[in-house]
Design brief:
With 238 residues, this protein is mostly helical. It is built from 5 helices and no strands. Helix 2 packs antiparallel against helix 3. This is Secreted protein.
Amino acid sequence: MEAAAVIIALIFAVLVALGVVATVKAVKAVKRGVDRTVDQARRTVEDTRLKARQYTAPGAGGEVAQLRLSLRTTMRATQDALRLGVREDPSLSESLALFQRLSAHGRELDEELRRLETEPSAERVRESLPALRERTERIRHSADSLRWAAQDRARRFSDDDLADLDEQIRMEAGALRHWTPVDEEGPSAPAASPPSTASPAPGAERPSIAGRQQPWQEGDRPWETGRIRDKWQKKNAT
């Protein structure tokens, strides 16, 4: 009896521990989601303010807002491109590491530009603009180079894959037009004759090609979505 009570107590303790761990993970996940939403909302508000300021603030104030907006837009576009690309191409991890180092300089520059927006001395703003403009262009150029290189690399891989797919489809199309039964081919078979347009013999099999997938089955329609099937289901239901 005591052993059973101990076992039940241990099971209860394990269940409680698992429940606590699951609750903590769920709370952390919700917190991360809320933080991402808040950060995104702050970025949207800040970008909207900068867009309005670059048109409404005259002179150096509008140029500062334009520099901040261009810097933030370029860095965010490069960040999204690299993070999306590294999931499919792990070799972009080195590029992502370089971009993280570049982001530190970008955040520092963005902070300087933000402080310059509230600078009461217009003369100091005008004196600081040339150097800040040059730094902005250098950082943007580096970010653009990383993003464009990653996009060109992905496009090249896509072109190579499309070329291989074209070759396989060409071989498949040729096999579909070859009506010679596989069973009749052998050492004593006569020389190959030109392709015939006659109908294939009953039960004849066509030769397979490299890379052939499993035979087509019901529902294997990768190009279609599901709207046609849902439409017919609704029609039959009525």
